[in-house]
Amino acid sequence: MHDLAHRLGLLPPSCGPVRLVGVDGHAGSGKSTFAGRLAEALGGAPVLHLDDLASHDELFGWTDRLLSQVITPLGRGGTAHYAPYNWHARRFTTPRALPPAPVVLVEGVGAGRRAVRPFLAGLLWMELPREEAWTRGRVRDGAEQRDFWDGWVEAEREHFAKDPSRPHADFLVRQLSMGYEVLSGPSGTVGPDHEVTHGDGPPAVC
């Protein structure tokens, strides 16, 4: 994990002074846990959870909020402010500050979508088959979320059919019994779509 953190810290900034790093994968694939551990290895890097920008009515309709509330101010070197969505109250709540940092992690399904990739210094994909990930997610959330998951699965299928992230991933992350294995991703290069920057060194195991 620390080797990956080191490599990410060496990437050129991609959003003003910030290296914005996406952590994408199917729901239930372990993105939040991995992002939390990577943030620790990065010395306490901020983590933006896309669940805070999505809502019941717009499961994948958060692009404009991400661009206007987060990416634009960070790109100017300023502090971002975004209003997290409360999934129980079904409303957006008091804005939360997200200051610029050397690395900021953006975690969630669709973090590597087409509209976001130009602002990413790197994209990580949690390598777990979707059916296995969805099963894990359903078990985690219990029977009370069964109806939500039924709707979510169809929405996620549709999203990735139109706008896949995995082919553009710089790194693939596999969870092991202890730790993670990090491999070079399908993109072959590390960095935003509009600018090619080469990775440094072979795949790492952390």
From TrEMBL:
Entries under Gene3D superfamilies matching the protein: P-loop containing nucleotide triphosphate hydrolases
Annotated spans, Disordered: 184-206
Keyword Transferase: yes
Record-level Gene Ontology MF annotations: kinase activity
Protein keywords: Kinase, Transferase
Highest taxon, organism lineage: Bacteria
InterPro entries noted in UniProt: P-loop_NTPase
Protein name: Uridine kinase
Species for this entry: Streptomyces sp. R08
Organism classification: Bacteria, Bacillati, Actinomycetota, Actinomycetes, Kitasatosporales
